[in-house]
Design brief:
- By secondary structure, the protein is α+β, with helices and mostly antiparallel strands.
- The chain folds into two domains: 69 residues, no CATH class; 228 residues, Phosphatidylinositol 3-kinase Catalytic Subunit, Chain A, Domain 5.
- The chain has eleven helices and eleven strands.
- The strands form two sheets. Strands 1, 2, 3, 4, 5, 6, 7 and 8 form an eight-stranded antiparallel β-sheet that branches. A three-stranded antiparallel β-sheet has the order 9-10-11.
- The longest helix has 24 residues.
- The relative contact order is 0.11.
Length: 321
Amino acid sequence: MADLGPDGLTCPLDPSIKLYGVVAKSCSVFKSAVQPMKMTFTSRKFSIDREIRATQEFPELGQYSVVFKNGDDTRQDSLVNNMVAIMDYLLKQVRYDFKFTPFKVLAASPNDGILEFVPSRTITEAQNLSNGNLQTYLIGLNSDPVKQKKILDTYLWSCAGYAVATYLLAIGDRHLENLMVTENGNFFHLDFGFILGRNPKGKQNYSPIRLNSEIIKGMGGEKSKGYEEFKDKTIDAFLQLRNHRHYLLNILTLMVDAKLKDLPEDDYARILREMNNRFLPGVSNEEAREIFAQIIHESVHAIFANLVYEPLHNLAVWWKY
């Protein structure tokens, strides 16, 4: 274990955490184009309140993990996570908790940065542990029927929340290696190298809402009660966020001068106009409900990405590693 000294190092993502050494056996490289590295440190968490900290007993030694990325503009990861956190706040104001998992991001430059590591598995890993059935994996996370239901509810709510967030922000390059699920059932997205309608070359066939058959199987399948609840919750989230259309668009407008890859100065007006259109302005809530329900239906049945792109992505990962 590499030692960072007795006083440790203040974590740049969270000043309440001190890092003391690298746990080499817990470090790894992720299967992604830029090969981000997970680094795990021994750590202690202190109070950020000076008065409490002055009298606080020395915390027990724990572990804290971060992800180092080089080759991607992590400012885009930061932007998306901040937008998700804002959507989460707006929805909670009307007592909707969609179980979002925004994580901390610190961009060191337009080419690298540090991200908080959220303990979780990729959808691929979860399926491999449950004979390809994501719902079986979720149920197997706990033997208590009450907690099993809570896990399934958390999964359903978080799927609905991220369905709307990724639709409004037009997140691209989605596949089973950047769709995650925690032990509590929280579903979330990571790796935002393509946003606001941008996609890798040759991968333009994404449905408006980022869904696939694997995600829906986790709800019980397209004919299940869980899927019907998911649709209702997704529509509710969308209708609530429509009320804050100008606010969310204004936040993105403030980022134009940052010169992000996917929000360039010479094209930002078109990008923001397209995002504005995704809110379905100019129609009533009842009309928006019907239109968005149809968007969900069309996205679920857009099988090109599910049946063709995912196997190609898996082949590319196998070939590389």
